[in-house]
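Archive entry. Fields below.
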Amino acid sequence: MKRTPIFEAARLVFQRDLTLAWRRWDEVTQPLIFYVVVTTMFPLATTPDLAQLRVISGGVVWVAALLSSLLALEALFRSDVEDGTTEQWVLSGQPLGWLLLSKVAAHWMLTGLPLVVMSPIVGTALGLPFNAWGTLVISLLLGTGTLSILGGIGAALTVGVRRGSVLLSLLVLPLAMPLLIFGARSVGMVMDGESPAGPLQLLAAIFFMALSLGPLAMSAAIRISVEN
Amino acid sequence: MWLWFHKLASPPHAYRLLGKMAPWFGWPALILILTATWWGLFKVPPDYQQGDAFRILYVHAPSAWMSMFTYVVMAVAAAVGLIWRIKLAHAASAACAPIGASFTFLALATGSIWGKPMWGTWWVWDARLTSELLLLFLYLGYMALRASFDEAQRADRASAVLAIVGVINVPIIHYSVQWWTTLHQPASVTKMGKPSIAAVMLVPLFLMIAGFQLYFGWAISRRLRGEILRRERNAGWLKEAS
Amino acid sequence: MAFDGALFEARAINAWRGDRHILRDVSFTVRSGEFLKITGPNGVGKTTLLRVICGLLPAETGAMQWRGQPIRGAVDEFHTDLAYLGHLNSLKSDLTARENLKFLSGLRQSLTTEDIDSALDRVGILSRGDLPARSLSAGQKRRLALARLVLADAALWILDEPVTNLDTAGIALVEELIHEHVSGGGLAIAAAHQRLLDDAAILRRLELEP
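PREDICTED_STRUCTURE:
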């Protein structure tokens, strides 16, 4: 029998995760609902005046997106490690980093992408002007993608730790601060009439760095977690 | 040379060596720190802009420097432990964390104390303080991850991965925070780290940095000995020695 | 499948779990056509040894060789020649039996529907092929895990308590599979409490002591 080429193996992992999510789609919608609830908290906590909310709209949308993504990422590897699938991946002879990256990509498509699609709507509810939609979406695409990889590393390190979700946030959020700074500020800049090209390019650079180095860290972390 | 390095990686040998080295770090450290303190407090004239308040710089700047230095040492030790599987390197990394966190906390506290007479508030979001705060979070995360594992081996390797990911992020964090603070009027934000000062006023600064580095050497020797004791508590050589 | 020249060698393996020195200087050899059965009381380190062989657990000292080459440095290649059945069945309860094989064994080998069906048939659960794994009995789940071995196309089989949850027919199936594989030139290493091919000519024993 022919050995499976790596791209085929990665595609199988991607397809598997989509199939699994489809059978438990209620779990997929929870982060999205959390996202909307959190953004609703800010007007309630401050003011209903859209002119005042507009100033912080970019930041609030970004913070809510980061927190919702993290919520979803916590259980990323848990079931696979618990039922033994992960150790079979380690033993599959395929480059582990590619399999894990494929899994993270599927996860992003199911949780990160819907957040990005919802973000202009949520932003508008906070007074975000139409001309900022493009920057918001692009910055969040890059940001949630990077966060999925960072969160993947954190999830791999904390899988099996009791109350791992709090620890995961503590580990990942400080590392995600640059994303927040560049992403939220890019939206603020475009609202002020400046070009957001600078921070967006920096976000892209960070994303590509995460894409190339992230799988290495994730493989190392996963190998540690199957050591039981 | 290689043999010496290999011997160094053996716990009983390292334990003895560190025990002998510690006082050689400790006493000079104490002398330098006291000298720097006396010099900074009494010998240096007050700054024409900031009065006497700037003297806290002599503790603030070295602690900030040490907080970053310690993180790098921690990450390098972790990488050595991970790549060459040297347990002592992992122990060194673990020993660095509380020391580094303390320096970070000291930098934040002294920065805050400096801020009060300068801007009238106990906290301000300037680049240095914000970076130090995020660095503190990184240290706390590292220590929390270590504490969450029961087995020392897994704790070592997992936190090593975290430390390496963190050290790559530190320059990014610094740059992003820097960029973030320059977006608005830098008017009331005096450059905390580098006031323009004459050479004679730099002497206590260098003395203090040297003193802190030696203190680091002393603290790490003591802590690492403690780590070795904890990890090797069942080993034969320990029972023979006691 | 070229099994000739297949030889597994372990020398002076030492491993710790936490503070416990659980494997002390373990050495053995397994050749093509041999089945090594590892026995010993509970907690002596059988599972640990199997996981060290696979590379899931690190060994502090010692060396392992596969086909005459050191495994360290060529781990992925070694894994392509290895099939591992551990305590866990590595099944997703939301996927059907067929899908489980497709998405897991499919990572190693390009599989057709016929390949999957014939594997399911070999282990006796073809009729359950389209049921979600969650609705299989414990014994059927173990059989599904065995199907992975059938599909694996690997020279070295590593089995940890393979007959867990299996009835008499299931135990006979495991013995058959191992016998076929080993007689065809493959190698097998298994940790087992009970009788497993104990009278066969291909059997060699390794008893671990505490």
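CURATOR_NOTE: The two ends of chain B are 30 Å apart (CA to CA).
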